[in-house]
Fold this protein.
Amino acid sequence: EQDSPGSATAVAHPNIALIKYWGKRDERLILPVTDSLSMTLDVFPTTTSVRLAAGAGPDEVTLNGRPAEGEAGRRITAFLDLVRQSAGRTERAVVDTRNTVPTGAGLASSASGFAALAVAAAAAYGLDLDATALSRLARRGSGSASRSLFGGFAVWHAGPEHGTDADADAGSYAEPVPTAALDPALVIAVVNAGPKPVSSREAMRRTVDTSPLYRPWAASSKDDLVEMRAALGRGDLTAVGEIAERNALGMHATMLAARPAVRYLSPATVTVLDRVLQLRQAGIAAYATMDAGPNVKVLCPRADAQRVADAVRDAAPDSTVLVAGPGPGARLSDEDG
Ligand code: PMV
């Protein structure tokens, strides 16, 4: 599997949360306030190779063929420092990452990115970690990345609120969620592929610190998760959609109430939401979810995906629409970066 000692390549897919992660209780360890639950996709993989290099100097990080700059580069180096520390190694790394999803557009490029980096870097530095430990590690890069370690549906446990940092870290990882037979599709409407106005990191911080709606949402999200697990367990896609949509709208309500407000939803988002409502009135179990950006992901039965995609295209002609399904977890690949 591994290319050679000191070198590895991994592939990971983004995931879309049906119960959102929004708000940290510990910024350094990336511990969330609430549990979250997602579906890993079969589109937009990230492929990352990590090769250890001799000699002193900074890590060399290439993102889609260009040297990583600024915040992106710093986050990757900080993550590699964590891996080096766990492995008791000091070599610098040469990292090459290829994302097939627009970076920073609220389409979870950080989830596939840090999941792939965790798997590749752990292997390159000789860390022998199981999926749970890799999920914990990926979490330190970007919270949502913890869930991309697993295919299909995954739940990320917030972990214990009390106890030591080590206890909290150990308890905060993702794992697969048992589901009955479901044949879901996620119709993704990229209404604007540009970078977001406020990073999710900053938006979460502001929401937790200033939004009077944050605590009530976090409390209701706990109930949503219980209902979501039950709906997945009985294969009730309509209930899954209903719960996902209300959880996402609630998350956006918390940030609209932050001071100053964070608003990721655009006119095109709302136009698509109207169309989703019309689809429901026409008897199609289509439900929307949005993340830290204006793009809309519509959950529906796979059998209805084409009809939903056509309707969304018609409503937002300037958007790019594609149909995704449940995808695989992060894994090492033979491909040479
Ligand atoms: O992992 P981050 O820091 O990119 O946060 C992602 C947060 C949301 O995408 C908005 C919700 C989620 O659970 O993925």
Observations:
- Residues 17, 20-22, 36, 108, 110, 142-144, 200-201, 291-292 surround PMV (CB under 6 Å).
- The CA atoms of residues 63 and 97 lie 5 Å apart.
